[in-house]
Amino acid sequence: MTTLTTESTAVTGAVGTARTRVEGLAKVTGAARYAGEIPYAELAHGWLVLSTIARGRIRSVDAAPVQEMPGVLAVLHHGNAPRVDADYVGMLGKPDPTLAVFQHDRVPSVGWPVALVVAETSEQAREAAEALVVHYDEDPHDVAFFAGCPGAYTPENPPGLATEQGDLEAGLAASAVVVDAEYTTPEEHHSSMEPHAATARWEGGRLEVVDSNQGSMWVAQELASLFSLDPASVRVRSEHVGGAFGSKGVRAHQVSAVMAATVLQRPVRVVLTRRQMFSLVGYRSPTAQRIRLGADADGRLRALDHQALNLTSTVHEFVETSAAMARVMYDADAHHTVHRVVALDVPTPTWMRAPGEAPGSFALESALDELAEKAGVDPIALRARNEPRVGPVSGLPFSSRNVLACFQEGARRFGWADRDPRPRLRRDGRWLLGTGTAAATYSSGVAPSTAAATAEPDGTFTVRITAADVGTGARTALALVAADALGVAPDRIRMKIADSDFGPAMVAGGSMGTRSWAWAVSLAARGLREQLALGGTIPPQGITVRSDTTEAVGALAQQERHSFGAQFAEVAVDVATGEVRVRRMLGIFAAGTIVNPLTARSQLIGGMTWGLSMALHEEAIRDQTSGAHVGPDLAGYHFAANADVPLIEADWVDDPDDDDPVGIKGIGEIGIVGAAAAVANAVWHATGVRHRDLPIRPDRVI
Ligand code: MOS
Questions:
Q1: From ligand 1's centre to the CA of 272, what distance in Å?
Q2: Which of 176, 251, 391, 599 suits a disulfide with 560, CB 3.0-4.6 Å?
Q3: What PANTHER family does the entry give (predicted)?
């Protein structure tokens, strides 16, 4: 037993220093096990069978021949699967009928799960699943999404999807300069390196799921509700996650794995293939957006109108809040935003990195660039001219707003001052060259979380929190936060995360994870430090202090809390082939306290790379006749590869947020925001042609 006092452990300053990931060695040596790799005795393997029609009913499932195939243990479908509570209300406040798999014979889209074949090996399950014959009664379907498509409406929930201030038409009529433009972004897909996987088993009367998710407590609560179980009897763990980006919540693979484990009373694993991910894990809806800007001759906005349309499925309403950014970025006497959705016979879209702001910033920040061109005002000066004092729609004060500092620092480092604003002037052989810029913002929320900090008898500390490290480095960041709060070196902290038994905590989402968890971790760690300061010995079981931020979060002042940023890009456009090459990108961000510069930079560069990819490559095409994707795999769905990605630099400015108890703002989303617009604006500067439809493919450039 050791005696610990704060005097003997007074080391601080871990937050803000670059640290490699605490689990880095385990990951690069293969010792870190992912959800699809963990061995179990008696493990059975499930393979999902997905519908081949876009709308209709299942007439019959010919299970009998498949049941005779080698190793096959069960074929679950709507005729025999365990029932779930389809009216359950999950953590997000409304039921998601997408999770009611095998509960009815209706097929609402191509790729709807219609059966799970379970066998002794994964190969046997796959062979049998591919041999399973399902007969359908097919109905006509509609998967056509386009600007002005019929049936669009503004949902009532969540409230506030439309905002109106001032007389828009009068503002536009009185403006010296007007931009009225339509922008589209295509259907974009989640391509996390690790496909979704879950193993479910019953162990000592409890349901245990080992998963790849963004929030083990979230998944546990949803499964408990869905299967009408006592929440205390469900345990979900998700130690290592190979990317998530909004797609790793509760999906058909966990639900069907639980069903099969219940029926067979043995562990069952369901892993999704890359192709299945295109149907089962959600995606970014295509958008059609119209932006109208009216300004005085000097660029001051009189009128701003952002209208956004996205698609959703017929079973669940999902809104891509593309017009949300306009409510934060720019003031105008008349300020209108509206979101509409149209329900089609497609899988339900979901969150994908910077949901709303990613497509919204392409439209808004392209339109600002068009306005700068028309008004003859430098794009950065135009943004400075339209800086709001308070939230343009909310009227609330900003906790901090350092977007202009980002532009200043970015302009200095990028060499913006020498830029000739006229397009199509610069050449490098057959390449036309141009530069562009765009603003970025993402909200910085926080949600209640709990944590526990334990002083161990050997002088180390264990911190437990149901956080998820989806590849961001959250585990390491929290170790730094705990080290500072305890006043000890980070290598004495053991982080235990991603286990629903650790209690409620925010998910890794909405750029809110690290901010929410850090608050709970530092609260518990500070409490423990105070207790240790009283002296005494540490018993064998250690000394544990728990925290819960529910009250503190509830008491936060109402403010606009956001990260901000400025994106810069230089492109070269081949006039013969239409190929666009990005030559360099620079992003400068204001995102509060940066906990770990090493992993933060990597997060931001990852987001910017995705923005480049969004600008030039990514696009899922749906065949109108079948309702299915053309080429749903990484051969048919292009994203930026190493050779497409040039020098990308990300850095930040000081962004103190003194009133805030955490000071962290979150950096998960903001790297992608504005990045595609900066590239598109650079393509205009190079060629003199506006590209309002993504991606900027060679055939569109020529
Ligand atoms: Mo993020 S799209 O909230 O996982």
A1: 20
A2: 391
A3: ALDEHYDE OXIDASE 1-RELATED (PTHR11908:SF132), XANTHINE DEHYDROGENASE (PTHR11908)
Secondary-structure breakdown of the chain: helix, strand, coil percentages, each rounded to the nearest 5 = 30, 25, 45
The ipTM assigned to this model is: 0.97
Say what the pLDDT of residue 3 is.
Answer: 41
Nearest ligand 1 atom, CA 353: 2
**Cα(213) to centroid of ligand 1, in Å?**
12
For residue 158, cis peptide bond before it (omega within 30 degrees of 0): yes
- Please give the positions annotated as active site: 669
pLDDT digits (tens, 9 = 90+) for 285-326: 999 999 999 999 999 999 999 999 999 999 999 999 999 999
CB 538 within 8 A of CB 2: yes
What pLDDT does residue 92 have? 66
Above 60 in pLDDT, residue 380?
A: yes
CA distance linking residue 48 with residue 91, whole number of Å:
25
Helix axes 513-533, 474-486, angle to 10 degrees: 30
pLDDT tens for each residue of 500-524: 999 999 999 999 999 999 999 999 9
Spatial neighbors of 425 by CB under 8 A, at least 6 apart, are none
Q: Is residue 179 a contact partner of residue 375, using CB atoms and an 8 Å limit?
A: no
Which ligand 1 atom lies nearest to the CA of residue 508? 4
User: Strands 44-50 and 72-77: what pairing?
Assistant: unpaired
Which atom of ligand 1 is nearest the CA belonging to 247?
4
Whole-model pTM: value is 0.97
Closest C-alpha residue for ligand 1 atom 4: 246
* Angstrom distance (rounded) from CA 403 to CA 414: 16
From CA 398, how far away is CA 392, in angstroms rounded?
10
Mutate to test the pocket of ligand 1, among 238, 245, 470, 515 (most ligand atoms within 8 A of CB): 245
Domains and their CATH numbers in the chain: 7-32+447-554 (3.30.365.10), 44-140+191-280 (3.90.1170.50), 396-444+559-701 (3.30.365.10)
Give how far the C-alpha of residue 34 lies from the chain's centroid of Cα atoms, to the nearest Å.
Answer: 20
| Pocket, ligand 1, Cβ cutoff 6 A | 214, 244-246, 351-353, 355, 509-510
